[in-house]
Amino acid sequence: MNASKILSAVAVALMAVAGAAHAETYEGVHRLTSAASRADVAAQAVVAAHSADPYATGAEAGPAQVFVSTVSRDAVRAQAVVAARSENPYSEAVTSRVAPVLASGLDRASVRAEARAAARGEALPL
Fold first, then answer.
1. How far does the signal peptide extend, from start to end residue (predicted)?
2. How far apart (Å, rounded) are the C-alpha atoms in residues 89 and 72?
């Protein structure tokens, strides 16, 4: 039992030595070098503090920018009508088109008679 404890302690020590061999070295804090003087940096900080936040979103961003359109209202309406009547580019197979109007060669009275006969369970003439 003592031998197993000694072997496990040796194994742990070897793993610690192996782990220390791969550790990174610390080189300390590097000095910052800047071309701007302390007064220039202070002046830039004052300007930045009093300007608008470029990273603001939502309600903090302020009023929305007003866009001025160069297209007339009638032209936009005509484009909307064309887009509404064309195929949907974002839909998938079944709903990608407007369903075609199917014309039937049967008159309304014969279709109605067939529907009544089918509802009553009567055999239809072939």
1. 1-23
2. 25
Q: What is the dihedral of CA 74, 79, 80, 81, to 10 degrees?
A: 90
Give the 3-state secondary structure of residue 123: coil
> Tens of pLDDT along 38-63?
999 999 999 998 888 878 887 777 77
This prediction's pTM: 0.27
The 10s digit of each residue's pLDDT in 100-117 is: 667 778 888 888 888 888
Q: Calculate ∠ Cα 67-73-78, nearest 5°.
A: 125
Q: Rg for the chain (alpha carbons), in Å?
A: 41
Highest mean pLDDT out of 1-5, 33-37, 39-43, 101-105: 39-43
Q: Identity (one letter) of the amino acid at 18? A: A
